[in-house]
Amino acid sequence: MLPTALAERETWDVDRIIATAVLPARDGDPLPPSPLIPAPTADADEILRCAETLGIPWKRILLSEVEAERRLRRYLPRIDEGLALSPAATVLSSGLLRSWRLRDRIEGLAAHARGDAGGAAARQVRMIFRRLLGKEEADQKAFAQHLWSAYQRVLHLQRAWRAASRSRGTTAERLAFTCAGTRCSYDDAAWALCRQDLVPRRGRRLEAAVQKVREEGFWIPRAQTEARAFDQLRRIVRSSPHLRAARPGRRRPRPSVSQPRRVSLPVAL
């Protein structure tokens, strides 16, 4: 029994050492040094290499930060003197979490609200979440229409690409064929022709269409692939109660020939 007890004791000690080596001792304590975590004094190249290793989409994150900062500076010129939470949330709308300024401000307010649940900090945090969810029904309807437009835009670009893949002749003839077949604009037809000549594979149509719609300013959910992102968008659109009037309903086909029915005949007496 003694060797077994010693072995169990050693196993428990090893598990405790591993647990304490992985987890910090208290909340807020610095993590132990790791080769994948660069120091704050590391140069930008080392930090970006670490982000690439961990699979962090740093390009997309930085572009979103730049766009959010540009919009804040356009509408709030005195942003460096102090950031008012409500106007900044109005400017960025549903993309307010893309700004580092607002994230830092919300984190500070959340920490303050933990100690004073009924104070001004808690009310501001609730206001932010109401903005994210849509504080009024009109906002929810407007965002639902935005998602519907994004969904239809992706489908429209896919139709233009399919028409471009079937087009033949000169560039002008192919543009005319694409525009006439899908009723798209000249810019969409030119985009479809360029994408068809550069990437003729059919599997890239949905991915390229979703990326273009995002670049145009429409919001589309993020996922591992653009196909899954579009599937999430389609589910949101189909389940939204604010878009029932916009979705075409299923109509029962009318028979081309009228069905026979019994006709009353006069009875001779």
Please explain how this structure is put together.
This protein is mainly alpha-helical and 269 residues long. Among the domains are: 58-133, no CATH class; 137-243, no CATH class. The chain has helices spanning 2-22, 44-54, 58-75, 85-92, 100-115, 120-133, 137-166, 171-182, 186-198, 205-215, 226-239. Helix 5 (100-115) crosses helix 6 and helix 7 crosses helix 9. The longest helix is centred in the middle third of the chain and has 30 residues, at 137-166. The radius of gyration is 29 Å and the shape is extended.
Secondary structure elements and pairings:
Blueprint: H1 2-22, H2 44-54, H3 58-75, H4 85-92, H5 100-115, H6 120-133, H7 137-166, H8 171-182, H9 186-198, H10 205-215, H11 226-239
Supply database-style keywords.
269 residues; 11 helices; mainly alpha; 62% helix
- Residues in β-strands, percent: under 5%
- Tell me the radius of gyration: 29 Å
C-alpha end-to-end distance:
114 Å
**Coarse shape:** extended
Number of helices: 11
Largest sheet: none
Percent of residues in helices comes to 55-70%
N-to-C series of helices and strands? HHHHHHHHHHH
Low-confidence stretches: 17-22
Average pLDDT for all residues: 77
SS-derived structural category: mainly alpha
Number of strands: 0
How would you concisely characterize the structure shown here?
By secondary structure, the protein is mainly alpha-helical. It has helices at 2-22, 44-54, 58-75, 85-92, 100-115, 120-133, 137-166, 171-182, 186-198, 205-215, 226-239.
